[in-house]
Amino acid sequence: MEVDNNVPKSARRSVDYHPTVWGDYFLAYDSSLTEINHQDEQEVERLRDEVRKMLVAAHATSTRKLLELIDNTQRLGVSHHFAKEIEESLKHIYNMSCDEFDDPNNLETVSLQFRLLRQAGYNVSCDVFQTFKEDEGNFKEELIRNVKGILSLYEAAHLGVGGEDILEEALGFSTKCLKSMVPKLSGYLVTQVIHALKMPIRRTLARVAARQYINIYQDNPEHDKVLLQFARLDFNMLQKVHQKELSDITRYIINNDIK
Question: Which domains can be identified in the chain, with CATH numbers?
Fold first, then answer.
Protein backbone atom coordinates (compact mmCIF):
# COMPACT_ATOMS: atom_id res chain seq x y z
CA MET A 1 0.00 0.00 0.00
CA GLU A 2 1.46 3.34 -1.07
CA VAL A 3 1.52 6.42 1.12
CA ASP A 4 -0.73 9.25 -0.13
CA ASN A 5 1.49 12.32 -0.07
CA ASN A 6 -1.47 14.58 -1.00
CA VAL A 7 -3.16 14.19 2.38
CA PRO A 8 -3.10 17.59 4.19
CA LYS A 9 -0.67 17.70 7.11
CA SER A 10 -3.51 18.66 9.45
CA ALA A 11 -5.30 15.40 8.61
CA ARG A 12 -2.28 13.18 9.25
CA ARG A 13 -1.88 11.36 12.54
CA SER A 14 0.98 12.52 14.66
CA VAL A 15 2.83 10.29 17.07
CA ASP A 16 3.95 11.74 20.35
CA TYR A 17 7.14 9.81 21.12
CA HIS A 18 8.43 10.32 24.62
CA PRO A 19 12.06 11.49 24.56
CA THR A 20 14.41 8.59 25.32
CA VAL A 21 15.85 8.71 28.82
CA TRP A 22 19.28 8.09 27.25
CA GLY A 23 19.17 11.28 25.16
CA ASP A 24 21.71 10.99 22.35
CA TYR A 25 24.18 9.00 24.47
CA PHE A 26 24.12 5.89 22.29
CA LEU A 27 24.52 7.88 19.09
CA ALA A 28 28.20 8.00 19.93
CA TYR A 29 28.38 4.26 19.34
CA ASP A 30 27.41 4.68 15.68
CA SER A 31 31.04 4.70 14.68
CA SER A 32 33.98 2.45 13.93
CA LEU A 33 33.87 1.38 17.59
CA THR A 34 30.91 -0.83 16.81
CA GLU A 35 32.41 -2.40 13.71
CA ILE A 36 33.49 -6.03 13.94
CA ASN A 37 36.64 -6.48 11.92
CA HIS A 38 37.29 -9.51 9.78
CA GLN A 39 40.34 -10.54 11.79
CA ASP A 40 38.29 -10.83 14.99
CA GLU A 41 35.65 -12.87 13.19
CA GLN A 42 38.27 -15.28 11.91
CA GLU A 43 39.82 -15.61 15.37
CA VAL A 44 36.44 -16.34 16.93
CA GLU A 45 35.84 -19.04 14.33
CA ARG A 46 39.24 -20.59 15.02
CA LEU A 47 38.78 -20.56 18.78
CA ARG A 48 35.24 -21.93 18.49
CA ASP A 49 36.57 -24.89 16.53
CA GLU A 50 39.26 -25.45 19.17
CA VAL A 51 36.72 -25.48 22.00
CA ARG A 52 34.49 -27.84 20.02
CA LYS A 53 37.43 -30.23 19.64
CA MET A 54 38.02 -29.99 23.38
CA LEU A 55 34.42 -31.01 24.06
CA VAL A 56 34.66 -33.97 21.69
CA ALA A 57 37.96 -35.10 23.23
CA ALA A 58 36.64 -34.80 26.79
CA HIS A 59 33.50 -36.72 25.82
CA ALA A 60 35.68 -39.62 24.75
CA THR A 61 38.07 -39.64 27.70
CA SER A 62 36.96 -38.09 31.00
CA THR A 63 33.48 -37.48 32.38
CA ARG A 64 34.86 -35.13 35.00
CA LYS A 65 36.74 -32.99 32.48
CA LEU A 66 33.70 -32.97 30.23
CA LEU A 67 31.44 -31.79 33.07
CA GLU A 68 33.89 -29.04 34.01
CA LEU A 69 34.19 -27.90 30.38
CA ILE A 70 30.42 -27.83 29.90
CA ASP A 71 30.01 -25.89 33.13
CA ASN A 72 32.62 -23.32 32.12
CA THR A 73 31.18 -22.82 28.64
CA GLN A 74 27.77 -22.20 30.22
CA ARG A 75 29.05 -19.81 32.87
CA LEU A 76 31.22 -17.94 30.38
CA GLY A 77 28.19 -17.40 28.17
CA VAL A 78 29.39 -19.34 25.10
CA SER A 79 27.53 -22.66 25.47
CA HIS A 80 25.02 -21.69 22.75
CA HIS A 81 27.79 -22.22 20.20
CA PHE A 82 27.97 -25.88 21.24
CA ALA A 83 24.34 -26.65 22.01
CA LYS A 84 24.32 -29.91 20.03
CA GLU A 85 27.58 -31.21 21.50
CA ILE A 86 26.51 -30.35 25.06
CA GLU A 87 23.06 -31.86 24.65
CA GLU A 88 24.51 -35.12 23.32
CA SER A 89 27.15 -35.25 26.05
CA LEU A 90 24.68 -34.73 28.90
CA LYS A 91 22.30 -37.28 27.40
CA HIS A 92 25.16 -39.77 27.20
CA ILE A 93 26.21 -39.08 30.80
CA TYR A 94 22.64 -39.49 32.04
CA ASN A 95 22.06 -42.74 30.15
CA MET A 96 25.38 -44.17 31.32
CA SER A 97 25.09 -43.20 34.98
CA CYS A 98 21.49 -42.40 35.89
CA ASP A 99 21.53 -42.77 39.70
CA GLU A 100 25.03 -44.27 39.71
CA PHE A 101 27.47 -41.43 39.22
CA ASP A 102 30.88 -41.67 37.60
CA ASP A 103 32.78 -40.86 40.80
CA PRO A 104 30.26 -41.32 43.66
CA ASN A 105 32.73 -40.37 46.41
CA ASN A 106 33.88 -37.09 44.88
CA LEU A 107 31.62 -34.34 46.24
CA GLU A 108 32.66 -31.76 43.66
CA THR A 109 32.04 -34.05 40.68
CA VAL A 110 28.79 -35.54 41.99
CA SER A 111 27.38 -32.09 42.77
CA LEU A 112 28.42 -30.72 39.38
CA GLN A 113 26.98 -33.69 37.51
CA PHE A 114 23.72 -33.45 39.47
CA ARG A 115 23.39 -29.70 38.78
CA LEU A 116 24.19 -29.85 35.07
CA LEU A 117 21.79 -32.74 34.48
CA ARG A 118 18.97 -31.09 36.42
CA GLN A 119 19.56 -27.79 34.65
CA ALA A 120 19.13 -29.70 31.38
CA GLY A 121 15.83 -31.15 32.57
CA TYR A 122 16.93 -34.66 33.55
CA ASN A 123 15.19 -36.30 36.50
CA VAL A 124 18.20 -37.02 38.68
CA SER A 125 17.62 -38.36 42.18
CA CYS A 126 18.98 -36.32 45.07
CA ASP A 127 19.72 -39.61 46.87
CA VAL A 128 23.21 -39.43 45.33
CA PHE A 129 24.12 -37.12 48.22
CA GLN A 130 23.39 -39.76 50.86
CA THR A 131 26.97 -40.97 50.37
CA PHE A 132 28.22 -37.79 52.01
CA LYS A 133 26.18 -38.17 55.19
CA GLU A 134 27.09 -39.93 58.42
CA ASP A 135 25.04 -42.71 59.98
CA GLU A 136 23.48 -40.13 62.30
CA GLY A 137 22.11 -38.27 59.29
CA ASN A 138 24.40 -35.22 59.26
CA PHE A 139 26.78 -34.29 56.49
CA LYS A 140 30.29 -35.56 57.21
CA GLU A 141 32.52 -33.15 59.11
CA GLU A 142 35.49 -33.99 56.88
CA LEU A 143 33.75 -32.24 53.98
CA ILE A 144 34.32 -28.86 55.64
CA ARG A 145 37.92 -28.83 54.38
CA ASN A 146 36.83 -29.39 50.77
CA VAL A 147 36.23 -25.84 49.50
CA LYS A 148 35.51 -26.72 45.86
CA GLY A 149 33.31 -29.63 46.87
CA ILE A 150 31.25 -27.53 49.28
CA LEU A 151 30.91 -24.76 46.69
CA SER A 152 29.72 -27.28 44.12
CA LEU A 153 27.26 -28.76 46.63
CA TYR A 154 25.96 -25.27 47.42
CA GLU A 155 25.22 -24.56 43.75
CA ALA A 156 23.61 -27.98 43.28
CA ALA A 157 21.38 -27.57 46.32
CA HIS A 158 19.63 -24.63 44.65
CA LEU A 159 18.16 -27.09 42.13
CA GLY A 160 16.05 -28.74 44.77
CA VAL A 161 12.27 -28.99 44.57
CA GLY A 162 9.63 -29.30 47.26
CA GLY A 163 10.01 -32.31 49.54
CA GLU A 164 13.70 -32.94 48.85
CA ASP A 165 14.84 -32.62 52.44
CA ILE A 166 18.41 -33.66 51.75
CA LEU A 167 18.90 -30.71 49.38
CA GLU A 168 17.45 -28.32 51.93
CA GLU A 169 19.91 -29.72 54.46
CA ALA A 170 22.71 -29.49 51.89
CA LEU A 171 21.93 -25.84 51.25
CA GLY A 172 22.00 -24.97 54.93
CA PHE A 173 25.17 -26.99 55.54
CA SER A 174 27.07 -25.63 52.52
CA THR A 175 26.01 -22.03 53.16
CA LYS A 176 27.25 -22.21 56.74
CA CYS A 177 30.53 -23.82 55.63
CA LEU A 178 31.21 -21.26 52.90
CA LYS A 179 30.59 -18.33 55.23
CA SER A 180 33.03 -19.77 57.74
CA MET A 181 35.62 -20.35 54.99
CA VAL A 182 35.70 -16.78 53.64
CA PRO A 183 38.18 -15.35 56.21
CA LYS A 184 40.58 -18.22 55.53
CA LEU A 185 40.55 -18.05 51.71
CA SER A 186 42.43 -15.89 49.25
CA GLY A 187 42.83 -15.37 45.51
CA TYR A 188 40.17 -16.39 43.04
CA LEU A 189 38.58 -18.86 45.45
CA VAL A 190 37.52 -16.22 47.96
CA THR A 191 36.15 -14.10 45.11
CA GLN A 192 34.17 -17.04 43.77
CA VAL A 193 32.79 -18.00 47.18
CA ILE A 194 31.72 -14.45 48.05
CA HIS A 195 30.08 -14.06 44.66
CA ALA A 196 28.27 -17.39 44.99
CA LEU A 197 26.92 -16.46 48.42
CA LYS A 198 25.55 -13.20 47.04
CA MET A 199 24.25 -14.58 43.77
CA PRO A 200 24.13 -18.37 43.17
CA ILE A 201 24.13 -19.57 39.57
CA ARG A 202 20.45 -20.47 39.71
CA ARG A 203 19.47 -16.86 40.39
CA THR A 204 21.67 -15.00 37.91
CA LEU A 205 20.96 -13.60 34.46
CA ALA A 206 23.14 -15.46 31.96
CA ARG A 207 24.81 -12.47 30.24
CA VAL A 208 25.40 -10.55 33.47
CA ALA A 209 26.79 -13.66 35.11
CA ALA A 210 29.05 -14.33 32.11
CA ARG A 211 30.73 -10.94 32.38
CA GLN A 212 31.38 -11.49 36.07
CA TYR A 213 32.55 -15.08 35.63
CA ILE A 214 35.08 -14.11 32.94
CA ASN A 215 36.92 -12.10 35.59
CA ILE A 216 36.73 -14.93 38.13
CA TYR A 217 37.76 -17.59 35.62
CA GLN A 218 40.80 -15.70 34.39
CA ASP A 219 42.16 -15.60 37.95
CA ASN A 220 41.85 -19.37 38.25
CA PRO A 221 45.39 -20.74 37.74
CA GLU A 222 43.83 -23.81 36.10
CA HIS A 223 41.84 -21.87 33.49
CA ASP A 224 41.99 -22.90 29.85
CA LYS A 225 43.55 -20.13 27.77
CA VAL A 226 41.70 -21.03 24.57
CA LEU A 227 38.30 -21.07 26.26
CA LEU A 228 39.01 -17.81 28.10
CA GLN A 229 40.14 -16.01 24.96
CA PHE A 230 37.11 -17.29 23.05
CA ALA A 231 34.76 -16.09 25.80
CA ARG A 232 36.36 -12.64 25.85
CA LEU A 233 36.20 -12.16 22.09
CA ASP A 234 32.67 -13.51 21.84
CA PHE A 235 31.48 -11.23 24.65
CA ASN A 236 33.13 -8.16 23.12
CA MET A 237 31.68 -8.88 19.68
CA LEU A 238 28.21 -9.31 21.12
CA GLN A 239 28.58 -6.04 23.02
CA LYS A 240 29.37 -4.26 19.75
CA VAL A 241 26.24 -5.71 18.18
CA HIS A 242 24.12 -4.51 21.12
CA GLN A 243 25.74 -1.06 21.05
CA LYS A 244 25.03 -0.74 17.34
CA GLU A 245 21.41 -1.79 17.88
CA LEU A 246 20.99 0.76 20.68
CA SER A 247 22.50 3.43 18.47
CA ASP A 248 20.08 2.62 15.65
CA ILE A 249 17.09 2.56 18.02
CA THR A 250 18.11 5.86 19.62
CA ARG A 251 18.57 7.53 16.24
CA TYR A 252 15.18 6.27 15.11
CA ILE A 253 13.44 7.57 18.24
CA ILE A 254 15.11 10.98 18.03
CA ASN A 255 14.34 11.36 14.32
CA ASN A 256 10.71 10.49 14.97
CA ASP A 257 10.27 12.56 18.11
CA ILE A 258 7.48 14.69 16.64
CA LYS A 259 6.18 17.39 18.90
Answer: 37-252 (1.50.10.130)
